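__Protein archive entry__

___
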Amino acid sequence: MKIHEYQAKEILARHGVPVPRGVVARTVEEAEKAAARVLGETGGAVVVVKAQIHAGGRGKGGGVRVARGGVSEATDLARGMLGMKLVTHQTGPGGQTVHRLYLEEGLDIARELYFGLVVDRDRRRVAAMASTQGGVDIESVASRTPEKIHTIHVDPAVGLAPYQARALGFALGIGAAGGQFVKLVRSLYETMVAEDCSLLEINPLALTGDGKLVALDAKVNLDDSADFRHPEWRELEDSDEADPVEAEAKLAGLSYVALDGNVGCLVNGAGLAMATMDIIKHYGAAHGVSPANFLDVGGGAHPDQVRKAFSMILRSPQVKAIFVNIFGGIMKCDVIADGIVAAAREIGLSVPLIVRLEGTRVEHGRQILDQSGLAIRAASSMAHGAQMVVDAVAGVSPDPRPAAVRPA
């Protein structure tokens, strides 16, 4: 779950992490009042107007603007940013509409550093990363000069130890701010654990002209698997940016993520769903065919959920074919077949439907599909099904050779 910068900073402040003072605004009128409040409380002359979207790279895309001309300039900037389509390297070419702004005090920045915490699944530990090259180009630092990013791994039984924080501070050349740095990064680690974050990134971590360390920006992702421990997370959800189909899927007990491809996928099991997307990409790369969604109906789905899944897939005008890939263990193939037939009749499928069934009660499931009278094409294997759906979307004649011997 992604949250906005201002929400992340509210969380950090509760854990004792120093952040600049700021106020969120959803309208031009609110932005004007927010700018006046920030300038009045800080006694400063600079307000930074920041677009709040769930994507990085805002500064390069025009989503972070500095107002040095008081409330009137900040208000003018807000008027131009609210409602704009902000395009960054993380939004894709379609961009995201700006519905909220964060007006924040401007600071005297002497150095821009980087600090991040992320779950390293290979090491099964939290990785703490720091670099002297903080700011908008941190991605290029990671790819071109990775030696400038210093990384340590934290033992979960001990937590981030003071000596580890001091080692990172020494690598950054913090100097007199070393004590502040140790306290700050330990607070960030405590926040990571207490708030069940999968990512906590401070970029830049600013060292101000008067020697203070401040989290100038904050990116926090929360681990959805821990939402049962955090009922307060519901208040952090942004209905303006939420995908309505993904929200509907969550209520129906389905795992759905929209993608930008043209093959709708309905699969049981997250691992099989990932493998299905991979094999569609494998066979479809040369034809511009790729998955339109990740959809895991789980191990105990019933026909109503299958119908719901089909309706969600078909809401995307990009979908040119559907691939159903089911391995029945707990999930029985005949239950899936009943749901497929009911959905196809209710919705009225207008795209090719390829189904691969294996597992519990598979013969009964295939019989249901065969006797449905619908144009459902059966696949003998996952690879066969992937090739069939690629052929259907690309408009090429089916290859009679077994999928295992066809060129990718």
About this structure: Residues 283 and 407 are 8 Å apart (CA to CA).
